[in-house]
User: Fold this.
Amino acid sequence: MGALIVAMMIAAGLCSAGTFLGGPGLGYKLGATWVTVAAAQNFMTFIVLGEVGKKVGIVARRINAQSIFGLLLHRFNKNRLIGIFGVVTIVCFMGSYVVAQLVGGARLFETMTGMSYELGLALFSGVILAIIAMGGIKGVALAIAFQGIVMTFAVIALTSGALMHVGPLEAALRGIAEVDPKLMTPWTWPIAYHISMWLNFGFVIIGLPHATMGALTYKNTRSMHKSIVIGAVFVVLWTMTLPYLGLLTKAIIPDLKVADHAVPALAMVVLPPWLAGITLAGVAGAIQSTVGAMIIVITSSLIKEAYQSFFNPTASSEHLKKVNLWVTVIVCLMIFAASIKPPHALQYLIIFSIGGMASSFFWPILLGLYW
Assistant:
């Protein structure tokens, strides 16, 4: 795949509901502390492609690996214990990551339409299932690239609207400081906690299986190098702007009951209705594409790396297609059920999921490739 699509697979795949809903929500709730932490994400495309991208691409092509988990299984001689552990880890932690994305999408729907959270959840789940069934990984990759561009438009529109609405920025920030001085202090957490967050969102990001999918798909090293630059531009724009917008929302809408509603509520206030609709629809589409990519990773791990590798190595392609369809439906239903009771703050669930996946896969990927 080309540089833009690879860059967007990594950038938009990692910066979806968390960056556009959960991150601004914590910006609204925690203030400058979260704005500082979010800056760790700025280098994610460089970290993924720079740390392991070239090596992953070379090895994956050599052994015909379809996923990072397949590459790991080959590296450790298809050890059954490692395979089971890997599948369980992906299902548990990536499953919770998908739950966070679905919750974000449903909350977005709830804010945009005034309808129930449960209805939004059902509609989101149905659309995602259709995307996976019709598009597969290539369809999802193209959708992610398109939605990444739409998300960029959304960020620019929201930022422009918010700045025009609040007037002088200094006065708005002083007003926030008067309400709660801690919101303007970037060091309300212990330094050790800050460092752990920076590591979680920065250096160990290669431990996320869906993040390293981009390293399996780039066309050549020149394309990979371009992807690093392109992805960095988009990610810096998103991650340096959106948490700050969450904080700024405190000056515009000081009494939000659900912090994760910060960006949708801000869009409704500072943008014309038609532009707010386009902006939030773009974010919703981005969430759907990201969830689709994650569910593909989960189902491929269950089918190709677990079922076919350990239980039915002679399965025909037709049989695997049928199994894949049923597993996808079951996974979607399980994730839907887990999303019915949403967490109080979306980003905390994302932090938990990233931490779990990074703890499980970071060192095996890094040391398995180079040692």
